[in-house]
Design goal:
Layout (H helix, E strand, L loop, with lengths): L4 H53 L1 H20 L1
Length: about 80
Amino acid sequence: MATTKSETDELAAQIEAIKSEMQNISATMGRIAEKGMHRAQDKAVETKESAEEAIKQNPLQAIAIAAGLGLLIGILTRR
């Protein structure tokens, strides 16, 4: 089955359209991922600041929690 020049040109145009659309999709996904990364970074900074504030307000409790976690991790890693 032989293809004509017009069919070949039409296929080439469709391939170019698909390539262009894939590039647009890729760029859009990149922007979405970048926005998500910025949101995650903002949330991490907010959580860090919140933790620092909690430690400043309750330093003895923070020390007790840290010591308890250290002990627990030490016990679990021995096994």
